[in-house]
Write a structure and sequence with these properties.
Blueprint (H helix, E strand, L loop, with lengths): L1 H8 L10 E5 L6 E9 L3 H9 L10 E6 L6 E10 L10 E8 L1 H12 L4 E3 L4 H8 L5 H12 L3 H11 L2 H25 L4 H8 L2 H27 L1 E6 L6 H9 L17 E7 L2 E7 L10 H16 L2 E6 L15 E5 L15 E2 L8 H16 L10 H18 L6 H19 L5 H8 L7
Parallel strand pairs: 1-6, 7-9, 7-10, 10-11, 11-12
Antiparallel strand pairs: 1-2, 2-5, 3-4, 4-5, 8-9
Length: about 450
């Protein structure tokens, strides 16, 4: 696997694995503890030079005084760990230095490391890249780690952890192993193509195995698209005519002044957004310009057009009306619509028949009922996706490509065995790309750009 990944990954952006890299792996700013990690062939030597002592026992923290090798000036007292490869995060020799988290200590330590021959500062995501190249992680696990680092809600955390623990990788490897067996059967049939009985016996039962594989892949795909929404945030649009209270509702949901609120229609000119955590599900709420056709303001007209685009791309729409604004029906959209009648404080008898919710953002009435309705709408669409194993468009597309090859094979039982084998081979390649064995060079640069320097 390591050779395959190296061939695919290292042609464009070879960072030099003979180098020993270092970086701060903890957060920025003053803290009780900061972690500096090293990876590469000189990690152990660097640790010896900083401490002036032999290496501590592997994978055990030891208290050491760190000094600059240049002048023996004391840098800090630290807990250090020696992590020899291949049993390390990157698969290489590694060291970790747990120092006091002051800016001065960190700067002195990084300066001392930077002066050592053969050491250099790490690039963004380079530790993870080395873990991939050494076979310690596959591409699905790399993407899951990136998603875990950016997770803001419980649902996002759960999706990332399931993939990071290897469940997605194990499933893909199982599919791949089954496809390799099917490919071997087709190759055997090719070898005995002149002996019809032998070739036919080799391919017996292939169709049922294909159907089972396709069913498993289809099940994964069914939850992948909703999982992508959880990863990125479920899109909720606040929409309606001007001056019905959309911006006031956004401010209430955010718990702060995000949007300018005015009695003047057309105040909101652009799309504003706020990220909410609804029972662990990430929800991005968009405040849009009031919809109307008769505006003579060119800037407002642009805002109205953007509002329509957001409206048609939303997963849930909160359509708002008010008693002091002319009624307007929402445009036709496929997403669920929550109809809200605002400003009950203006007209205490403002009621609408059917499924309208009556609220007053100003008085704070009916808002909890609106939140409950929003939770229900989001969970109905995306609650089941919390157990999905694939949450990126790239992953869904790779599985889809494999399915298309297998469907083409299953629907054409009369195909020559050589062409049938090629369909299976292409399906294997699609899964190889999914876990990072082939065709991932450009993708890696994009993925690793998501990581911080120390990861």
């Amino acid at each position: 696997m390591r050779d395959l990944v190296k061939d695919a990954c290292c042609g464009k952006m070879d960072m030099g694995n003979d180098d020993t890299i270092f970086a701060v792996s903890s957060g920025a700013g003053m803290a009780a503890v900061a972690v500096v990690r090293l990876s590469g062939p000189l990690a152990g030597e660097a640790l010896r030079r900083l401490t002036g002592r032999s290496l501590p026992p592997p994978r055990r923290l030891a208290l050491r005084t760190l000094r600059s090798p240049a002048d023996q000036a004391m840098i800090d007292q630290a807990l250090v760990a020696w992590l020899p490869g291949p049993r390390s995060f990157t698969g290489e020799d590694m060291a970790e230095l747990h120092v006091h988290g002051s800016r001065a200590v960190i700067d002195l330590l990084l300066e001392a490391l930077g002066r050592m021959k053969g050491l250099r500062a790490a690039e963004r995501g380079e530790f993870v890249r080395r873990a991939l190249l050494s076979g310690r992680m596959d591409l699905l696990e790399v993407e899951a780690l990136a998603d875990l680092l950016r997770a803001e809600t419980r649902a996002q955390h759960g999706l990332a952890m399931a993939a990071l623990e290897g469940e997605a990788s194990r499933l893909v490897r199982s599919w791949r192993a089954q496809l390799v067996e099917l490919l071997a059967l087709h190759e055997a049939a090719i070898d005995f193509i002149d002996e019809e009985d032998v070739a036919g016996q080799a391919l017996s039962g292939v169709d049922s195995r294909l159907q089972t594989l396709l069913q498993e892949m289809r099940g994964a795909i069914d939850t992948a698209l909703p999982a992508e929404r959880i990863r990125e945030g479920v899109r909720v649009a606040l929409a309606g005519p001007p001056n019905v209270g959309k911006s006031s509702l956004l401010n209430w949901l955010a718990g702060r002044e995000v949007a300018i609120v005015s009695d003047m229609p057309g105040t909101t000119r652009d799309v504003l957004e706020v990220l909410l955590d609804l029972d662990g599900l990430p929800v991005v709420v968009f405040d849009t310009a009031g919809l109307r056709e008769d505006t003579a303001d060119g800037v407002e007209a642009i805002g109205v057009e953007r509002a329509r685009q957001v409206l048609h791309g939303a997963d849930v729409v909160v359509w708002m009306q008010a008693p002091d604004v002319s009624a307007m029906e929402p445009p036709h959209i496929d997403s669920p619509v929550i109809r809200v009648w605002n400003k009950a404080d203006v007209d205490s008898f403002a009621k609408r028949s059917g499924d309208w919710l009556t609220i007053s953002v100003k008085e704070g009435t009916g808002l909890n009922a609106l939140l409950d309705a929003l939770r229900k709408a989001v969970k109905q669409q995306f609650g089941a996706a919390e157990s999905a194993l694939f949450a990126r468009a790239r992953q869904r597309q790779a599985i889809t490509r494999a399915m298309e090859e297998l469907e083409a094979l299953r629907l054409r039982p009369d195909l020559p065995v050589e062409l049938a084998a090629e369909h299976v081979r292409r399906a294997v390649r699609a899964l190889d790309a999914l876990i990072g064995r082939v065709d991932v060079e450009d993708l890696l640069d994009h993925i690793f750009a998501e990581f911080c320097i120390g990861k």
